[in-house]
Amino acid sequence: MTDNRESARLKNLERGQILDEATRLRRQRKALEALERDNFQDDLIALNVSDHRLQINKKFQQRFTIEDESESTIKENASNSSLTNNVKSENIELVNSFLSEPPSTKRKKLKTESKLRYRKNFATLLEEELLTSQENKFNYFSICVSDTKFPKRKFCAVCGFNSNYTCVQCGTRYCSTKCLQTHRDTRCLKWTA
Amino acid sequence: MNKFILDNGAYLAKSGFSTDEYPKMTPNYITKSKNARETYIGNELEDCKDFSGLFYQLPFQKGILVNWEIERQIWNQIFKRSNVDCPQTQLIVTEPIFNFTYTQECLEELVFEEYGFDSLLRINAPNLAAFKYLKTNAKDFCLVVDSGYSFTHIAPFYKGNIILEGIRRINLGGKHLTNYLKETISYRQLMVMDETYVINQVKEELCYISTDFESDMKIAKFKGKENTIARDYVLPDYAGLCKGYAKSQEESTGIPLDSEQIIRLNNERFTVPELLLHPSDIGIKEMGIAEAIVDSVESCPSNIRNELYENVLLVGGNAKFKGLKERVFKDVRCLVSNKYKLNITCDEENSLSYAWYGGKMLAEDKEFDDLVVTKKVYDEFGHSACKKKFDLNN
Lengths: 193, 394
Prior knowledge:
The complex is a heterodimer. Chain A is an all-alpha fold. Chain A has a domain at 154-192. Chain A has ten helices and two strands, in the order H-H-H-H-H-H-H-H-H-E-E-H. Chain A has helices at residues 8-15, 21-34, 52-56, 58-67, 70-80, 87-99, 107-112, 114-117, 122-132, 177-186, and strands spanning 165-166, 173-174. In chain A, strand 1 and strand 2 form a beta hairpin. The longest helix of chain A has 14 residues, at 21-34. The two termini of chain A are 29 Å apart. By secondary structure, chain B is an alpha+beta fold. Chain B folds into three domains: 2-127 and 353-390, Nucleotidyltransferase, domain 5, CATH 3.30.420; 133-171 and 285-350, Nucleotidyltransferase, domain 5 (2-Layer Sandwich), CATH 3.30.420.40; 174-273, Alpha-Beta Complex (Actin, Chain A, domain 4). In chain B, 35% of the residues lie in helices and 21% in strands. In chain B, the strands form five sheets. In chain B, strands 3-2-1-9-10-20 form a six-stranded mixed sheet, sandwiched between helices. In chain B, a hairpin with a 3-residue loop joins strand 1 (2-8) and strand 2. At the A-B interface, helix 2, helix 6, helix 8 and helix 9 of A face strand 6, helix 1, helix 2, strand 14 and helix 4 of B.
């Protein structure tokens, strides 16, 4: 009963688990996708409605919710978009944006701006663009640069200098036994994808 | 008729009337500070005192404008700040090369139907930069390398017209460099994954591009006084120190003075910007800037190649890295035959606003009125009129 807690890291190490090529590629791809992220933390403010801007015009909020149903479809789309993890903040941003609009905007205008309010995420836009750009020889996809002809340079993950060796288990590069020790102590197979 | 130029970058929006001397820089995103519980739209970031754990909301994704709600708020701020009277103003807006159709349509809808500008010119930033270069140097050909926050575009121009065969895009920009630096520091020293703003300052202050990569690596391996590359950076603690700073070489001992938090940058100083020239270092299979320049020129007709090599122009935020010009020259020189003369221009101080100044020159040019699409034409024909006039494939 007391031995239920086991360290996954130690278990893996003892087993001498070696990751195969596909898993290594998957891990590398995840690391590269992490480079594209804007934030690594959650949006703490959006979840907490103490933002003073939201409390300013309750009357406007009421008017806004009665006005048209397209707002609910936007909420649906926002919740469907898998990219962001701050769905609620999108809704709050929508309300924010209408609060900050110049007061002279007529009510009629809010209804006709359907194109701008229906937000598509990047993946949808990319697919659409793929379809429409088939007709042109030069388009967003064709101008992307091709692969490099030069060989890949290898650097130690721990210290950053030139590396000659790879970790047997996970494939990360290291330069000396000291760096290998540091790697084993910290990160080897910390996340098994 | 007033002319307003808005260089709409993914990181900074450079804006101003054509009569202004220099452009106003506005951060093109919304930031939230959890300590101060405040939201800063664009320029309000100047009022922020505590930059730790700043949460970013960018309307751009991979360099393309996706989120118009946020962008509208920032544009409201920009136009209000400069007192723009929309119906009396002609607007120049920059967009990436081969921008998505949906984004273009949304932009035109916003400009004409919501703001009500008199006329619009939708153009690429490299085009404006080329215009300035060609006019100031009285040349016909120009190869613009615009390296920004989201990506790098390489585009050859002939007298203001883009040469379609030579356009290239490398999907690596300042954002990826900052994230990579955050990752390496978080692994080797201190957990800074949330501190985008602070690490961006570190990158801008301490990173440079080395001309001789191997010998710089050797120097960085030394310990003590012989290592002229390692530097300490004092992190801000927002109690006394609001903005971090880098210590000079003599003071950088690696040992912090009391109540100081330092990070020590050694080979990260030059291996991080090295990604621009060798994306393969981190596993991205694309070509670097030097190789892509050669690839771009070689796909153009052979009779113009030496003109293009003689007029290479580096603009954009990443052109501010020290040593980029020399390194690109060295790398391209190695790849290119001796019969071509190679000449690279790079104005480090003004590389961010180079395209804006190009827009200013274009606005004052007498041919400007032929290039724009007026509101009347848009009301009649819609997006197709703009597409016909601005699209690169026509």
